[in-house]
Design goal:
By secondary structure, this protein is mostly beta strands. Helices cover 7% and strands 41% of the residues.
Length: 383
């Protein structure tokens, strides 16, 4: 006999999936690439460095509604490093208006500065904020933590997802189970509950590494986890359901990047989840991500590989339904159709390799905001 709680959870999951499909509408790739009219190599419009000196901006997301300290249209940006530039030790999320700020390092407005000693729940290893960043219409902010003690993968621990309220206070953590090194995330907002799709990059990675001064051997154990989260205003969020929906993504430790593995994720209108497979330099797809009960094996199916892709990291969708990825290898942003056709634009040719990570396209905007961790700035590609 199925318990009432299990039946209720199943009904919530089905309603969430149906809401996502109905709300997304129909999006198809257009003949002309979204990035075609965008001007290359833009200058910075803002600093991402707050007063405590955190650097290495990774995640970026557009605030959908004004609530608490959040302002609609502003950009939230998570910092992965502290002021000593140690990876996996950054503790701040800054909030930047779409027009930028004065550009002076130390002046970025802080939405949250997270103290591991005051966390509302477990987070193995502490705080080191990753690219996994989302914000709901009800005012909750969810951010991933892949913490280290000294910036080395040797001290990396499983971390967690931190859930903050609209004033930047941590109200819940999501840890254990399938959460192991949450690296990036996308969210589908259903109002009173939210579906998270989270990539994880520490499953077997650290155990396989012998010399942390050199890149570790790849292990095909990266995962994508789907989490149903209650996000009712005034109620502490909690997990309704969590499922591993994809396995087998290659991942490895790296002395310069801490870890390399499945990064950006974006959900298409038809329920296909796209994943940036950084190690294998490809765009992967997880079919029926909203409903599937069993995990896709071997990193899912390949949408596109090689070509203009060069270490794809951050990912978002263009308004035309195409996939936008930031190249970690050369400072370009690549647009890929769901059928696999590619086009590119130079986002930061001066910085080149290693400077791009997160990117976002605000609703109704004809350009792309992206972070540059080479000089700790926010930039925008626009017509």
């Amino acid at each position: 006999m199925i318990s009432h709680s299990r039946a209720r959870r199943a009904a919530l999951l089905a309603l969430a999936c149906l809401s996502a499909l109905l709300g997304a509408g129909v999006a198809t790739a257009q003949a002309s690439p979204f990035i075609a009219p965008l001007q290359p190599n833009p200058g910075p419009i803002a600093t991402t460095v707050p007063a405590n000196g955190d650097v290495n901006p990774y995640g970026i997301v557009t605030v959908p509604t004004s609530v608490g300290a959040l302002r609609r249209g502003n950009l939230l940006i998570s910092n992965f490093n502290n002021s000593d530039n140690l990876q996996g030790t950054g503790t701040t999320i800054v909030q930047v208006p779409p027009g930028g700020n004065d550009g002076v390092p130390g002046h970025a407005s802080v939405f949250a500065q997270i103290d591991r000693k005051t966390l509302r729940g477990p987070c193995p290893g502490g705080v080191g904020l990753t690219t996994a960043l989302a914000v709901t219409r009800s005012g909750f902010v969810i951010v991933g933590s892949l913490p280290t003690r000294n910036g080395s993968a040797k001290t990396a621990q499983a971390g967690c997802l931190l859930v903050l309220d609209s004033n930047g206070e941590v109200v819940q953590t999501i840890a254990g189970g399938p959460i192991n090194g949450p690296w990036d995330m996308t969210a589908v907002d259903h109002g009173f509950f939210t579906t998270l799709y989270v990539t994880n990059v520490l499953n077997g990675t650290v155990a396989a590494t012998r010399d942390f001064t050199q890149p570790g051997p790849p292990v095909d154990r990266g995962t994508v986890v789907r989490i149903q989260l209650l996000t009712v205003p005034g109620v502490t969020p909690f997990v309704l359901d969590e499922d591993v929906i994809a396995t087998g993504f290659p991942e490895r430790t790296d002395p310069n990047a801490l870890v390399v593995g499945p990064t950006g994720v974006a959900l298409g209108a038809d329920g296909t989840l796209y994943v940036a497979d950084t190690v294998d330099n490809r765009i992967a797809a997880i079919d029926d991500a909203t409903f599937r009960a069993l995990p896709a094996q071997s990193g899912g199916r390949t949408v596109s590989a090689g070509g203009d892709l060069n270490g794809p990291l951050g990912m978002t969708l263009a308004p035309n339904g195409d996939i936008l990825t930031a190249n970690g290898g050369d400072g370009n942003i690549v647009e890929t159709t769901p059928a696999g056709a590619q086009s590119k634009v130079a986002a930061d040719s001066a910085g080149g390799a290693g400077v791009l990570f997160g990117l976002t396209v605000p609703p109704g905007f004809d350009g792309i905001y992206f972070v540059d961790d080479g000089d700790n700035t926010l930039r925008v590609l626009a017509p």
